[in-house]
Each structure stands twice: as C-alpha cells, then as structure tokens.
Amino acid sequence: MSASAFRTVPASADVVIVGGGVMGASTAFHLAEAGVTNIVVVERGDLGRGSSGKPIGGVRAQFSDPLNIELGSRSLRAYREFRYRPGADIRLDTVGYLFLLDSAQQASDFEAGVRLQNTLGVPSRMIGPDEAQRLCPYLSTDGLVAAAYSPADGHARPGLVVQGYARAAARAGVTIATHTAVSGLDTAGDRVVGVHTSHGRIACSTVICAAGAWSARIGEMAGVNLPVRPVKRQLAFTAPITPPAPRIPFTIDFSSTAYFHNSEDGLLLGMADPGQEDGFDTTWTPEWLELFRTVARHRAPALAGLATAGGWAGLYEVTPDHNALIGRSGELPNFLYAAGFSGHGFLQAPAVGEVVRDLYLEREPFTDISPLSADRFHHGAETRPEAHVV
C-alpha cells in the first residue's frame, strides 16, 4: 500500500483506529470482516513503521501466564492460515523457539510453564543441553542447565502481516489515512465524539487506541491513563555467512535476553540493553553490539566475531508489569485500547484483533481479557505476572 493520497480525512466514521501498526491493521481487518466498514485508520507515518517495523518478528505460545499462552497460541494458528485469511505470504518459518536456561531456578520456572502450556495444547518440552546444542550448533553448553523448546513457534515478517491485514481491510471499504497525525480528541460527557488530525476532524462514535509506544499520549488526550513507556530496542544483521548458516530455532539466552536466528543469508542478532533509558529515539547505535558479543563469547562463541552489516532500532511499548493493556475505558465507554504489549504485540496481534472486534460488537471474546484492563494499576488489582519476558 503506497502512501495515502488523502489531503483530508472523511468527516465522520463509526470507528477511528489510531495507529497503523500490526494491532491497528489486525483490528481493522477483523472489524471489517464482521461487517463494520465505516472505519478510518489514522497513522502518522507509513503503515507498520513503529514497533511493528522490525524486519522479523518472533511468534510463540511459550509463556508462563495462561492468558498470554492463549493469545499466542490462537495467533499462531491465524499466522499458519494467513495465506488463506486474509490472504498473504508472511514468510512464516516454523523453526521453533529455544530458551536457554543457566540456573536451577530458571529450569524449575520453565518446567512449570511447560506443564501449563501442555495443558493448553502447546507442544513445548524441556530438553537437556546436548539436545539444545543439536538444535542450535552455535551453542556452547558450558553453564547450561536446561532449555525449553517448542517446535510450533517461529518467526514471520511484521511488515507483510501489516500489509496483508491493511489490504484486506481496504478492499472491504476501510479508509487508511497514512501521514496523518492525531492532535486531539473531543469528548462530550462520557463519550469521545471526534478526532482532530493533521488533515481535518473526524466525528466518530468509537475510538480505538492502537498507537503502540505513543499510546499514553493518545490516552491523555481522552483523559484515559494508559501507562505505556517507550524503550528503544536494537538488533543487527550479520554479513552473509558462507557456507550458509544452519536452520536454527529462534534462540534466546534467557539470563541476558541475547537472541539470534536466521535472516536471509545470515543471522539476526538482538539483545535488550539494561541501561537503555526511556524515550522515542530510534537511532541505531552499533556500540550496543558489544553487549551482545560479551554474552556470545560465553554462550555461542562463533557468533562473537561475526561481521555485521547494519541494523535497526525500534520501540518496545512497556507497561509496569510487561503485559498488554486491552479493554474498554471505564470513564469513556466508547474509547477502546490495545497497547503496551512489551515486545509481545506482533505475536498476539491476530487474537487481539478478534478480541477488540468482539469488545466493539459487545460480544463475548474467546477468552476473558478483563485481567488486562488498564484499570488494574490504579484500583489495587493484582498485576499480571509473566516470567517469559525478553
């Protein structure tokens, strides 16, 4: 989909979706499929350039929280069927996910996770260091206690998913207004009644915030507290590897968060910088690679010296408990939100699009997502514990 030609936006809509990333596109598709077509998706840049911009996104159902397992598992099924519905090749590669564990406590925690995942139909299992090394020959087993592996997980291309959903939504009559920034929301009583954009005002009967790392700002415009903070995460690509790299799982050193997997003619390398301050800066700074190399020297020595050929920086949208915010505002019942996925948005997007569709239509979603309400942080409710965060 090329940049939108809209000089103005439609004067009114039933639904305005703020954010043209994977969450906004999935929501637009699922609503349109259900017959809601008077929808405008408002995106301040090009589609999928915020948190969804990573060249490759992991897809998994290996979590410790049952709700995250359900959202991940249902989304995996949708990704497997994506070529038929909505109809696009998303370069899904089911290579599995391999979590490397280096303490008895981690092994015990992941064992509990695997037991829970198995009851929910996820084919994960605990394996020993030697089997982990067979799956991923780059590994050194030194200090490895165990690993958790699920062959059903893998990775796909977020950009292709966004385009697939957006094209199908547009075919169904959804208006997609790119290069259109939201500057304010109008409320009257307990309702949002309009969205101000750089290309005009849209009168509307529902607003759905799917603005990723920018969601707190959109929430503020409506007086709704969405505690999402932006944190830069970086990755790098190796130069082409000859002979070609073996096909390996999406491999994560759980203690350090360092991860790597196949990418085109080399590998993709990533890791969270524990010293990274909050902010919207997405400048790629190759210096962070030294953090990855330090871990790699011990865990996967052959990777430590590989030449790199560029990289990418994007934003995680992080909440206080590293779990999503999905729901309907208590103060403004026609303000819905799906944000704050803390790195899990791409892999949960198909299922969350269904959930938001059902919230809008006032139907019962396939699972109870009330624990993910943004209200959980300010009325003393227990936050969601999720151990499998990277």
Automatic annotation (TrEMBL):
It comes from the Bacteria. Pfam families: DAO (PF01266). Keywords: Oxidoreductase. InterPro entries: FAD-dep_OxRdtase, FAD/NAD-bd_sf. Gene3D superfamilies: D-Amino Acid Oxidase, subunit A, domain 2, FAD/NAD(P)-binding domain. Residues 14-359 form the FAD dependent oxidoreductase domain. The keyword Oxidoreductase applies. This is FAD-binding oxidoreductase. It comes from Streptomyces endocoffeicus.
